[in-house]
Amino acid sequence: MKAFPFLILFLALASCSTKPNKSEQAANNVISRFAAQDLNIELHADLSKTDDGCDQFTTAVKNGRLTIHGSSGVALCRGFYNYVKSQEAGISSWSGKRCELPEQLTDTDEKHIISPFAHHYYFNVVTYGYTMPYWDWSRWEAEIDWMALHGVDMPLALVANEAISARVWKKIGLTDEEISHYFVGPAHLPWMRMGNISGIDGPLDDVWHNDQIALQHKILDRMRSLGMTPVCPGFAGFVPQDIQRLYPDVTLTETSWCDGHFHNWMLSPTDTLFMQLGKMFIEEWEKEFGPNQYYIIDSFNEMETPFPPKGSEERYELLATYGESVYQSIKAGNPDAVWVMQGWMLGYQRDVWDQPTLNALLSRVPNDKMLILDMAVDYNQNFWHNSKNWDEYEGFYGKQWIYSVIPNMGGKSAPTGVMEHYANGKLEALRSQNKGHLAGYGMAPEGIENNEVLYELITDGGWTADSIILDDWMAHYCQCRYGQYTPAMQQFWDGARQSVYGSFTDHPRYNWQLRPGLCRQGSVRYDSTFLDAVEKLQAGAESMKGNSLFEADLAEMTVIYAGAYAEKLTQHIEDLLDTQPRDEAAIKAEIQRFETLMRDMDLLLETHPTLRLDRWLHFAHQHGEGDAYEHNARRLITIWGPPVDDYSARIWSGLIRDYYLPRWMAYFNQRLSGEPFDFAEWERQWVEEKTGVSAVEKPTDVVEFCKKVMEESSIHSAIF
After folding, report:
1. What distance, in Å, lies between the first and last C-alpha atoms of the chain?
2. Are 545 and 703 in contact (CB under 8 A)?
3. Angle of helix 73-86 relative to helix 470-482, nearest 10 degrees?
4. Concatenated DSSP letters for 479-521?
5. Which of 47, 259, 293, 671 is the most exposed place for a label (fewest CB within 10 A)?
6. HSE on the CB side for 662, CA within 13 Å?
7. Buried b (16+ CB within 10 A) or exposed e, 29-46
8. Number of neighbouring beta carbons within 10 Å of residue 715
9. Mind listing the pLDDT tens digit for each residue in 557-613?
């Protein structure tokens, strides 16, 4: 990494000839990695948080020197990022970054920003499956940099959970074989942690555990150096069934998930063994990684919950005892710790979690020792159409809570999301008479590295209590990302905001991402407004050649555009196959057009920095386990188990040409020949026996190839 002499010099001056403190140095390093240029800058971590615990920063340029004062390392990083964006000089994203500050900075008055939130939360428990299971330190370092620049200070930090669990279970007498039989492959760990599954693609060995412990040390050290307060795992009561060998009198409940296809075993929080293991887990965790304040424990994730009937004293006493026992198990390991709980079930299963039921669960936990992640406000607003959880549960009965959204399910690539809600939905919570102890703001995407505009918008929203005017924000976003805001860009974003980014789809997938014959119409909300918008973006693309971020976005939107035509082509071919007598020559010609379009979509994504299967498999292979982890990685993004087939639905190069397309070609051949085809077996073989990605040569001129793909698509406009 290049040295940055100006930055280092003025950090020293800022500290009165002493070394910069830990927060200043950590922020310096983040900024240096992002900016990649010499900077005339001072950083001072000398502000206090507000009385409500909120971060703040000031920025000012005098005599060409940028001075930032902040209340934490994160505040300093966000202050710098805010300054860069105020100058429309750059952006940090997963598909690339831009930072083009002038050598001589223009003097500015002091700007003072105070976040309206004490915490800025990030990640979903399952992000650790859908995106991060195989990340190395280099990728983690980049993500923590992204967090700091975007002002995130409360991330989930779940790496090495299994290593600590294994230590605890060995201490009570379980064997390596019994523990290994219980564990699942890395990509499926989130659902084992929440008690949904066990045994898929295991075992995990000591090499994995040791690597994860070393990785988690680096992750936590970096997070803490920036002033982040990570949320670490606690013991939720899910254990290997073989624990009954040691404790034959203990009662285990066999959990059931996904209509009974998956199972785990749950130790009741009312059992004394639960308290013992919970205490041991916290102690073992802190022995390895040091003291921690926040521990996440989820015991009821989408579970069939055979509670006693509503209205019965037995039901509420059971829930109150459960809540008390979970909290006491944490307290036994660390008296100062806070229990964190995901609130997905509160909207998803509101028929189960009515007011008295939740109130009972929380009733015996001190208000300042519990934090609820109200993680799906966008679902309340745009999908379930039910009341907001903070209203339904009267401000969560005095507990601390975090406003959060889920802008992605499963790591799906297709665009969706009501941008106006992501920009300003928080205002309803901030102004609500039921906001209670609203302690934070954030997002809990199931998968990241997609729909980047939404994440930029959401994180900006965490640093203002004012309304965001989207027209102005979009212009500013394009200037920051591309260095320009052309009429073509404005036309594109106007159209996108009236279509895919003005609507909310729970699971946006094209039909060609699903097993053929099961679904004629996908769920991506493309329409003529969106298609016209992409055409306008393409029409103005020539002047943007060589702009890497623009080319990445153009390639992505072109594939989404072409994907709509590919879906319509499958429907057209089905209609031709159903017509009697068949015109086989016409059918084969249309199948050939479909194949050509899909292959060219795939080639175009080969040019994209992140939307590629080879990248996903590369992370899996880094762990030195031969092909086992690759098979686990392939399983998660396709058949998942099965079932939960095609849930993840990535629009990725490699996945299109090696999985989606061959599956559809087999289907068309079956329809033409009448010979049966075993799709389940073909899918299993692709997951468990295939390796790598077929070789292709990617295009060198992205803009021209986008134009080619769009022309191939528009040939089929008559089928709309």
Report:
1. 52
2. yes
3. 90
4. HHHHS---HHHHHHHHHHHTTGGGS--SS---GGGS-TTS-SS
5. 259
6. 12
7. bbbbbbbeebbbbbbbbe
8. 12
9. 999 999 999 999 999 999 999 999 999 999 999 999 999 999 999 999 999 999 999
The pair of structure tokens assigned to 653 is 């190069």
Sheet holding 108-114, edge to edge: 41-44, 65-70, 56-62, 108-114
* In contact, 324 and 370? CB cutoff 8 Å: no
What is the distance between the alpha carbons of residues 709 and 599, in angstroms, rounded to a whole number?
10
CA distances from 416 to 90, 93, 491, 528 (A): 25, 18, 18, 16
Tokens of 702: 């992205």
At which residue do the structure tokens 């990030």 appear?
Answer: 122
Q: Which residue has the tokens 């310096």?
A: 28
Mean of the per-residue pLDDT values of the chain: 95
Locus of tokens 């949320």:
231
Closest CA to 86 of 64, 108, 65: 108
Task: Say if CB 719 and CB 573 are below 8 A apart.
Answer: no
Please state the length of the chain. Answer: 720
Instruction: Note if the bond before 581 is cis, omega within 30 degrees.
Output: yes
Q: Provide the token pair at 115.
A: 């976040």
Q: Which amino acid belongs to residue 423?
A: A
Q: Cis omega (within 30 of 0) on the bond before 407? A: no
pTM to 2 decimal places: 0.96
Contact status, residue 356 vs residue 394, Cβ threshold 8 Å:
no
Instruction: Tally Cβ neighbours within 10 Å of residue 19.
Output: 10
Examine residue 643 and say whether the peptide bond preceding it is cis (omega within 30 degrees of 0): yes
Q: 471, exposed or middle or buried, with CB in 10 Å at 0-12, 13-18, 19+?
A: exposed
The distance between the two most distant Cα atoms of the chain, rounded to a whole number of Å, is 88
Contact indicator for 202, 183 with CB cutoff of 8 Å: yes
Q: Is 374 left (phi over 0), alpha (psi -120 to 50) or beta?
A: beta
The confidence score (pLDDT) of residue 18 equals 61
